[in-house]
Specification:
Number of helices: 17
Shape: globular
Strand content: under 5%
Number of strands: 0
Structural class: mainly alpha
Order of helices and strands: HHHHHHHHHHHHHHHHH
CATH topology: Growth Hormone, Chain: A
CATH class: Mainly Alpha
Helix content: over 70%
Oligomer: single chain
CATH superfamily: MFS general substrate transporter like domains
Number of domains: 1
Radius of gyration: 20 Å
Largest sheet: none
CATH architecture: Up-down Bundle
């Protein structure tokens, strides 16, 4: 299992060299209006919903290694589709391939890490190692954002070509993993029943609700950052460069925060950390919905921090409560519900896009504040400091 532990942060970094991140909205706007772009994003989330649970079940049934290889390969092909086509229909296919790739990766990567540690009785290292891997992933995203913005200023397609090569490399690294020992998943019906039984745990139910809200709130500023920035840049031809530079700073801050997630949860308590992270993201969305101004950029630099902290902290609460045979399936169901909810939000936002970007952002901020209060009030009965490991 030592090979897996050595490879894991390197695979995570290669898997997250997504050079298209700072330019995707700009790329889509070359041929589509904002409503069509939001519909295109909704296609991605709908496809993710359809594939999420089956991919998690395949991970529990067939193995972590094969699932990760398939996910990286599908993402690489999707990037090639974007780089070599133009228009709504082929880009919709690219979105489906991206969705399949990320669905196969979702929950399986972190399950491989926990299973590898559990095989050697080292489960207590999970949050620290996941924090380190999350930091490596985010530094990769930061570098890809900076480089993607620069090459996107030359030709936006280059960002997708570079992604295809990088994620293809991740598939090769995934092939080098050793399948950790685990109990094989049951039939689909029995698997769902086992997940339902596990969710009788109050902490698991609460963390799933946190993950759902986190999926929605963390994606809102991600989706709207580029058009928000486009309203500020005088020369719109330079927007990809500005987007890449700003994304680099955002993700760099997130990478530092991810590396400190274990220490933060140990000091302040896991529950307080996740609620604080969601509150911060709501504040960022509210700032974006207020106005577009350069003096608000320092607030936007905190956009990626909540997601960076949530993954290892929530994982440290969930993994010990899940058996290996249902771990990826449960996390896939959690991701499915979150993606489905955000996909529905995008459909609604697309229908109201004629009112402009700022009213949409203000609406998301109000929703976040109300949902956050409900989570705070719905205490799961866990001790703030005692549930950190």
């Amino acid at each position: 299992m030592d090979r897996n532990l050595w490879l894991y942060p390197r695979y995570a970094a290669a898997r997250n060299l997504l050079f298209w991140l700072p330019v995707f909205f700009l790329y889509f706007q070359q041929a589509l209006d904002i409503g069509e772009v939001l519909w295109l994003e909704a296609i991605y989330y709908t496809a993710f919903v359809i594939l999420e649970v089956p991919s998690g079940y395949l991970s529990d049934r067939l193995g972590r290694r094969l699932t990760l290889i398939a996910g990286a390969a599908l993402s690489s092909v999707g990037a090639l589709v974007f780089a070599t086509s133009h228009g709504f229909a082929p880009w919709a296919l690219g979105q489906v391939l991206f969705a399949a790739g990320f669905a196969f990766d979702s929950g399986t990567d972190t399950s491989l890490l926990y299973d590898s540690l559990a095989a050697e009785g080292r489960e207590d290292e999970y949050r620290q190692r996941e924090s380190q891997a999350a930091s490596a992933s985010l530094w990769a995203v930061a570098a890809a954002s900076l480089i993607g913005g620069l090459i996107g200023a030359i030709d936006l397609r280059l960002a997708y070509l570079a992604t295809a090569v990088a994620v293809g490399t991740a598939a090769i690294l995934a092939a080098a993993f050793v399948e950790p020992p685990r109990v094989r998943a049951q039939t689909p019906l029995l698997q769902i029943r086992a997940v339902r039984t596990a969710l009788q745990d109050g902490v698991l139910r609460w963390t799933m609700l946190v993950a759902l809200l986190g999926t929605i709130l963390n994606h809102v500023p991600y989706e709207f950052l580029q058009p928000w920035l486009d309203t500020l840049v005088a020369d719109r031809a330079q927007t990809p460069v500005w987007s890449g530079a700003l994304s680099f700073l955002i993700v760099g801050i997130s990478a530092v925060a991810a590396g400190q997630a274990d220490a933060l949860a140990t000091r302040w308590g896991a529950r307080n950390v996740v609620l604080g992270a969601l509150g911060l993201q709501t504040l960022v969305i509210g700032a974006m919905g207020w106005t577009a101004a350069w003096w608000l950029v320092p607030v936007l630099l905190l956009r990626g921090l909540p997601g960076a902290v949530l993954r290892p902290v929530l994982g440290s609460l969930q993994h010990p409560r899940l058996s290996a045979s249902i771990r990826a399936t449960t996390l896939s169901i959690q991701s499915l519900v979150g993606r489905l909810s955000f996909g529905l939000c995008l459909v609604i936002a697309g229908a109201w896009a004629h009112d402009g970007m700022f009213p949409l952002l203000r609406g998301f901020a109000v929703f976040g504040a109300v949902a956050l209060f409900a989570l705070w009030a719905g205490r799961p009965g866990m001790q703030s400091a005692g549930e950190t490991r």
